[in-house]
Amino acid sequence: MNYIEQIDRNNIPQHIAIIMDGNGRWAQLRGKERAEGHQAGAATVRSLVENCVRMGVRYLTLYTFSTENWNRPAAEVAALMALLFEQIEEEIFVKNNVGFRVIGDMSLLPDKVRERLEACIARTAGNDRMTLVLALSYSAKWEITEAVRSLARKAKAGEIAVEDIDEKMISQELTTNFMPDPDLLIRTGKEVRLSNFLLWQAAYSELYFTEVLWPDFDNEQLHKAVYEYQHRQRRYGLTGEQVTNEEK
Prior knowledge:
Number of helices: 10
Number of strands: 6
Strand order of the largest sheet: 3-4-2-1-5-6
Order of helices and strands: HEHHEHHEHEHHEEHH
Distance between the termini: 30 Å
Structural class: alpha/beta
């Protein structure tokens, strides 16, 4: 099936989040070093960004490096940081009018990487066709913990009442407060879990798991995921009949 021809352009997910899994296994299956898998994965990112822009996606969040990933072998972490530094190409943002943001604990990043990221964020601040968000040195538990600490400090200072804390207030304290929750969350690479990614925000996201390794996740694979998303009924706790009646 040619999925791009089957996609409803009036029902494109506004926010797609992706757990990009399988770079290392992709390389090992080909007798290559894991770093070469990460390089191949970076090429997939560039293609995917431009495809999402064409489809009309407003936010694309990519799980790039988790807080747990700092525990990987030092050589692999160093290679990932070097690749990240090299692959932040402002040309793709300028050409496609794409803004750039980062969520995660940037204080843990090497200085030159953090400075490169901050410069790109500043230079693309006015781009508004789509926003590319990297979840970098990120974990959902870290993010929620930071939000709880912030609210606790405000309550202690008398800025808010504990009784007033609700879901909206918590969401505003999260690093993702500038964008809507993901409509579609994709994980490549066969594993079927969220791995500490957007746990609060993905409460009602449509989940899509595929065995395709990230470097092989091409545009047609993305179109397939969007096509499946469009053929699901988003209920948000309601019955199917209630949703159907609301849509009439």
